[in-house]
Amino acid sequence: MFSVIIGTGTPVIGSYENVPWELGSIRLKREYDVEGGTNYVVTGEDFFYTIPYAHIAQKSLEAPPAYAIDIHGQFLPTLKIGSLYWTATNLSVTHYRDGNSIPAADVFVYGGSEANAAKYGRLYSWTAVNSGKLCPVGWRIPTKEDWESLLAAYPGKSLKALALGWTGNADNASGFSALPVGIADGTGGYDGEGGYTYFWTGTEVSAGVAWSVGFFPGTDDAILDNNIDKSFGLPVRCVR
Question: pTM of the entire structure?
Fold first, then answer.
């Protein structure tokens, strides 16, 4: 374990004062060389937050803001891709935006561990997704067509976070930061942590299944899947 003071020392590239906070998707990438040399290994990345209330007050006349705010007051960084703004982290609410609790059958945390909610966000059934009340006010669930536009702008590898589970098929050029979160099977089982994940779309296939988007290790692509059971718990992003 070690500590680093950010914003001091001699800049190697750029300067701290010129960080473009208004973009809302600034990330801190971590690399190290255990031998003390320059053969760095990427160990991950984290969003580099401003002080949200101060930043949003400064930008209050600009729309949309650099953050979405969920029902619990949590700030979600956003980024613009094409004509849409996307949340850049997974949703992690236990209540709909009208204040009502999401039924236990429709919201999950991987492995049942609350620690995973902080790491990955929460997983939702398509019933919660289709409620129209899951995303923050002014935001909505992306449709299949929205995801198609996203995948046309960036290949799957450019939507994946720099996480070890993606085995090198990730560069996160978009800032979307998809993690290998896994899924809940709707009956108390979980699978895929550190290996793969799916995201819900808001587009139905039939009474039992809906469209989703899958991300996997060992490939640069993401796939649209029309065979995921609506009872499954998948992570969710929102758009506006």
Answer: 0.77
